[in-house]
TrEMBL record:
<keyword id="KW-0378">Hydrolase</keyword>
<dbReference type="GO" id="GO:0046872">
    <property type="term" value="F:metal ion binding"/>
</dbReference>
<dbReference type="GO" id="GO:0016055">
    <property type="term" value="P:Wnt signaling pathway"/>
</dbReference>
<dbReference type="InterPro" id="IPR040230">
    <property type="entry name" value="TIKI1/2-like"/>
</dbReference>
<keyword id="KW-0879">Wnt signaling pathway</keyword>
<keyword id="KW-0645">Protease</keyword>
<keyword id="KW-0479">Metal-binding</keyword>
<keyword id="KW-0732">Signal</keyword>
<keyword id="KW-1133">Transmembrane helix</keyword>
<dbReference type="InterPro" id="IPR002816">
    <property type="entry name" value="TraB/PrgY/GumN_fam"/>
</dbReference>
<dbReference type="GO" id="GO:0031334">
    <property type="term" value="P:positive regulation of protein-containing complex assembly"/>
</dbReference>
<keyword id="KW-0325">Glycoprotein</keyword>
<dbReference type="GO" id="GO:0030178">
    <property type="term" value="P:negative regulation of Wnt signaling pathway"/>
</dbReference>
<dbReference type="GO" id="GO:0006508">
    <property type="term" value="P:proteolysis"/>
</dbReference>
<keyword id="KW-0472">Membrane</keyword>
<dbReference type="GO" id="GO:0017147">
    <property type="term" value="F:Wnt-protein binding"/>
</dbReference>
<dbReference type="GO" id="GO:0005886">
    <property type="term" value="C:plasma membrane"/>
</dbReference>
Length: 348
């Protein structure tokens, strides 16, 4: 598959160079092409450094669409850096402990009774559906529904509500069906290790984790409640999935940067703002959204930018490939990173 055969607008702008004019190649004439991107940026220096936007989806869904220039940049770079060091067991255990409620508390002690009951009922439903959602391919790989459920949702009663909210969002049929294949960033990390490149990370676990834990209790309750309401409506069939991983994959494969970065609908983040909420709840939704943008996008971008710059300054003779999440989606998908841990340790 190529972008030309996959992206709807490619038909309107038949390229004289065919597949060679995919992302990173000659711009096509369609107006939409101005919005397209290879997710690869070059930092001009000698040797060069590259910045590449990854995505937390099974690499097999996007690999064939990644332009050759991006793959060549990866191959030619001697150092490969990620947001977090996904191949380090401490990263994974750090993320896991950061998600836990403090002082041995239990969700049942923390959540209003009715909300807890709805959460439990939803997870019971997921557990029931999971065997039906799994693909023959997954079963062929020896993946069992109970095992998968425990890998994703095991110990949920001990987790902070904000992480349970993200977990609920990752427990949809499409997401379940894509479990078991390394996500693109993990795949790149594994490839980098296999090729004996130097690997590293520009962030520490706490820096990714603490901002999420920084929402206050009423904000978290609101977010969890809204997430559950969405999933309950999905269950009842009164709501179409407002965002799907499929959409995200399609936008990524088409190089649609704006959609990947800014469109809530493709980010797996529950879109609290654009729903029919009473005014005071609109305010809470807006506050949560601004908080996430500030903490998880702007502040992180600045911090990561500083670290990239100092790495480049301190290693002037080395080529670099920085692989960071391509957009908005990255920041609230820590949950996938935890999943990476289970995949690495052979659970999936
Ligand atoms: C949570 O934060 C919001 C916005 O800063 C504030 O209005 C609200 O009172 C806070 N709630 C609690 C329980 O601290
Ligand atoms: C959940 O949200 C609905 C609709 O916004 C509201 O009526 C209900 O009181 C909320 N429940 C909790 C526990 O916050
Ligand atoms: C949500 O956004 C869409 C497109 O931006 C808009 O047409 C729609 O009216 C919005 N819905 C609400 C409830 O704000």
């Amino acid at each position: 598959p190529t972008r030309d055969s996959w992206c709807p607008w490619a038909l309107l702008a038949a390229s004289p160079r065919g597949a060679g004019a995919r992302r990173g190649g000659t711009p096509l004439s369609s107006p939409q092409q101005g919005e397209l991107n290879s997710f690869l940026w070059t930092i001009r220096r000698d040797p060069p450094a590259y910045l590449f936007g990854t995505i937390h989806v099974p690499y097999t869904r996007v690999w064939d669409f990644i332009p050759d220039n991006s793959k060549a940049a990866f191959h030619s770079s001697s150092s490969v850096y990620f947001e977090l060091d996904l191949t380090d067991p401490y990263t994974i255990s750090g993320l896991a402990s950061c998600q836990m409620l403090p002082h041995g508390e239990n969700l049942q002690d923390v959540l209003p009774r009715e909300l807890y009951r709805r959460l439990k009922r939803h997870l019971d439903y997921i557990k029931l559906m999971l065997p039906h959602w799994m693909t023959p391919d997954q079963r062929g790989k020896g993946l069992y529904a109970d095992y998968l459920f425990n890998a994703i949702a095991g110990n949920w009663e001990r987790k902070r509500p904000v992480w349970v909210m993200l977990m609920v969002n990752s427990l949809t049929e499409t997401d379940i069906r894509s479990r078991g294949v390394p996500v693109l960033d993990l795949y790149l990390a594994q490839e980098a290790e296999r090729m004996k490149k130097k690997t590293g990370a520009v962030e520490r676990v706490e820096e990714q984790c603490h901002p999420l834990n920084g929402l206050n209790f009423s904000q978290v309750l609101f977010a969890l409640n809204q997430t559950l309401l969405q999933h309950e409506s999905l269950r009842a069939g009164s709501l179409q999935a407002p965002y799907t991983t499929e959409d995200l994959i399609k936008h990524y494969n088409c190089g649609d940067l704006n959609a990947v970065i800014f469109n809530h609908d493709t980010s797996q983040v529950p879109n609290f703002i654009n729903t029919t909420l009473p005014p005071h709840e609109q305010v809470t939704a807006q506050e949560i959204d601004s908080y996430f943008r500030q903490e998880l996008i702007y502040k992180r971008n600045e911090r990561m930018g500083r670290r990239v710059m100092s790495l480049l300054r301190e290693n002037r003779d080395k080529s670099f490939f920085f692989a960071f999440g391509a957009g908005m989606a990255r920041v609230l998908l820590f949950y996938s990173i935890t999943m990476i841990g289970s995949e690495m340790f052979g659970m999936l």
